Amino acid sequence: MAIELPENVMVSRLDALASWCRKNSLWPMPFATACCGIELMATGAAKHDLARFGAEVFRFSPRQCDLMIVAGRVVMKMLPVLQRIWLQMHEPKWCISMGACASTGGVFDTYAVVQGIDRFIPVDMYVPGCPPRPEQLIQAIIDLQDKIQREGTITGREFATRERQLRKRALVEMAGPLAIDAARNPVIQSELRVHRS
Ligand code: SF4
Fold first, then answer.
1. Which CATH class, in words, describes the domain spanning 14-196?
2. Is the CB of 105 inside a 6 Å radius of any atom of ligand 1?
3. C-alpha span between 44 and 46 (Å, rounded)
4. Is 152's C-beta closer than 6 angstroms to any atom of ligand 1?
5. Considering only Cβ atoms within 10 Å of each terminal Cβ, which end of the chain, N or C, has fewer?
6. Distance (Å, rounded) from C-alpha 124 to C-alpha 49?
7. What pLDDT, in 10s, does the model give residues 130-162?
8. According to the model, what pLDDT value does residue 175 have?
9. How far is the CA of 38 from the centre of ligand 1 (A)?
10. Residues 17-55: tens digit of each pLDDT
11. Mutational test site, ligand 1, from 101, 110, 137, max ligand atoms within 8 Å of CB
12. Whose CA is nearest to atom 3 of ligand 1?
């Protein structure tokens, strides 16, 4: 039997509503290390107006962010800092790898530069280019919003960190505390050994 709904009443699933709220209120954590960072700044400026997508509230405290945007190359020495900031962000959280350097190391094919951050933290969206234009980053955010709407649950299936990392190709399970000093960080040292061999 069909139920007559009064005007202005909509019915939805709680999951869909929670995901809709999440996707439209992303708070980015900028991890800008090089030239791609300038394009990231341009994306947040008036001309491109990230506020149209609800993602303009950049914060520099990981406790307040749920979207990490890595823009630029990451060197091995900086990696523990990146991982620590990622760990300090609350769940659910997402990551965009912006530009060739963050995604693959770019032209810096050397032992000192991370050859793709997805070897160490789980990445949801990759933005190609050197540097990518702000429109490309905006497209990645729109695609991520679609993904959040599709995948999110209020029961928190997406919080299963190990499973997520496997799916997102990250090699490292970051359960315990990581040494901020690269020389004492076992994960970084084993990666360096692979490069040397
Ligand atoms: S991808 Fe190009 S623009 Fe971006 S950080 Fe690397 S060299 Fe700079």
1. alpha beta
2. no
3. 7
4. no
5. N
6. 22
7. 999 999 999 999 999 999 998 888 877 766 666
8. 47
9. 10
10. 999 999 999 999 999 999 999 999 999 999 999 999 999
11. 101
12. 131
> Does the Cβ of 98 fall within 6 Å of ligand 1?
no
Residue 99 CA to ligand 1 center (angstroms) comes to 6
73 lines ligand 1 (CB under 6 A): yes
Distance 113 CA to ligand 1 centre (A): 13
Residue nearest to atom 6 of ligand 1 (CA): 101
* Residue entry with tokens 């749920």: 66
- Whether the CB-CB separation of 123 and 110 falls below 8 Å is answered with no
Q: What is the pLDDT of residue 190?
A: 72
pLDDT > 90? residue 195: no
Is residue 119's pLDDT more than 90? no
Q: What pLDDT does 137 receive?
A: 97
- Looking at ligand 1, which atom is closest to the CA of residue 36? 4
